[in-house]
Amino acid sequence: MFLLWLLPACSDDFLEIYPESSLNEGTFYKSEKEIILLANGCYVPMRNYEKVEHWVMAELPSDNASFQYNTATGEASKGVIDQFILASNNVAYANFWNASYNGITRCNKLLFEIDRPEITWSKPAYKDRSAGEALFLRALYYFNLVRQFGGVPVVTEPISSEEAVEIKRSPEDQVYERIIADLKDAATRFAQAKEVDEVGRANEGAALALLGKVYVTRHQFAEAEAPLKAVINSGKYLLLPNYADVFNPTNKDFKETIFAIQFSENSVELANRFIFWFAPWTSGGAITNRPAISLVGGGWNQPTDDLINAFEPSDLRKDVSIKYWNGKDWDGQVRDIPYCGKYKPPVTAADDRTGDNLPVLRYSDVLLLYAEALNEIGRTGEAISYVQQVRARAGLTNDLTGLDKVSLENLIDKERQVEFCFENQRWYDLKRTGKALAVLTAHGLREKAKKSFLYASAYEMTPNKLLAPVPEEQILVNQLAQNPGY
């Protein structure tokens, strides 16, 4: 089923990250505290799919990332997605879909319960904040779903599993209408809840930033201007002086990072293991500092030559984003093997628990989206300064004055590629700008010329592959229509 009934999660401290547990349906949601715990639980499925599936579906298919071949595991379910050999029975799609609707179910449950008359609120702001969180997260769940699969079932209230079978896929336009409505409502709710803002939670800035991104994705550039400008004018966010500081797990960033998935080393449930996925599997403990932890499943999100060459020579972001380990590769040859440097080894945990936050919306994203919107509506000269802010932090201070619309469009595309590499943005950017087929066809030719282990059918790019296949179980059980070509 694409919907799961019930199951919030709770935590006494949001920064300890809402560990998962079951709550008693029917008798539980009768106090402010219980609604806040239910709000905490709305984040949990997203945290879970960001750990394992989302990077496979949003970064690995792009020209930024590939994988170190592993003679033990081959391409498995991840490598075939990198090569665009896509099938509806791939477990990554099913897990992502189910986790997304798990999260949507939680959000719907909160919005249904929050108006119970027996609930006494110590401050009305807590009610607005909780509603805002549910609306924002529901919008984000649907945004990721629609960008992956196209039209999906839209559900906005608690329903039974029997009712779920009757709900079919809505057209993309209707899904986006729901997303935009939710984000507008969320921004209004958050504006009334500023006195109870809490780091790590979604807030007004996150709702406005995501609304602007949705409009840019829809090519509604004029509509994107106002929410993005509001984030900039709020004065709440800034670019950290050093790009590396954004990815320092010992100093969680809430100045540049507008919204992030929160992780912690405190428990397996709260931690990620990104560096154990991304370090070369032949590197042992040289990168992870945990030689007892097997890396047999590692070597993913390996930086490609395309990404490495996209950085300008003096770009300070390159040494933060891409590291090299000199050692034996999969074929026994010693090489300088590139790997993703943004995510770090454990700080205190003795095992494979790491606590890097995963940025979803950063201030640099807002600046570049705003520049893109201005450029597209004919205000290229005004847009340049926002691009230059991002470049200046990266050590790139050359004057951009005089760039025309097309030149600035291409520069923004390159800036987004290097600024947000390994943050699950590149695949979506390629799709929304209409460049995915051309870029990935050329990328695939270069990859196949370099890597003898790729499948013969790798990188056979066709328009239908811009959408992922709907998971097989949704076709069989819920009788949903499959995307063309699968």
Walk me through this protein's architecture.
InterPro entries: SusD-like_N, SusD_RagB_dom, TPR-like_helical_dom_sf. Keywords: Cell outer membrane, Membrane, Signal. The chain has 486 residues and is mainly α. It folds into 2 domains: 276 residues, Serine Threonine Protein Phosphatase 5, Tetratricopeptide repeat (Alpha Horseshoe), CATH 1.25.40.390; 73 residues, no CATH class. The chain is 45% helix and 6% strand. The protein has 19 helices and 6 strands. Strands 1-3 form a two-stranded antiparallel sheet. A two-stranded antiparallel ribbon has the order 2-6. A two-stranded antiparallel sheet has the order 4-5. A hairpin with a 5-residue loop joins strand 4 and strand 5. The longest helix is centred in the first third of the chain and has 26 residues. The radius of gyration is 22 Å and the shape is globular. The two termini are 20 Å apart. The N terminus is likely disordered.
Strand-residue proportion: 5-15%
Task: Tell me the number of strands.
Answer: 6
Mean pLDDT: 93
Helix content: 40-55%
- CA-atom Rg in angstroms: 22 Å
- What sequence of helices (H) and strands (E) makes up the elements? HHHEHHHHHHHEHEHHEEEHHHHHH
CATH hierarchy, class of the largest domain = Mainly Alpha
The shape is: globular
| Helical segment count | 19
**Global structural class:** mainly alpha
Distance between the termini: 20 Å
Count of separate structural domains: 2
Strand order of the largest sheet: 1-3
CATH architecture of the largest domain: Alpha Horseshoe
CATH-defined fold name of the largest domain: Serine Threonine Protein Phosphatase 5, Tetratricopeptide repeat
The stretches of 5 or more residues where confidence is low (pLDDT under 50) are 1-12, 17-27
Question: What does the main sheet amount to?
Answer: 2 strands, antiparallel
Organism: Adhaeribacter arboris
Domain SusD-like N-terminal: 13-215
GO cellular component, one term: cell outer membrane
Domain RagB/SusD: 349-486
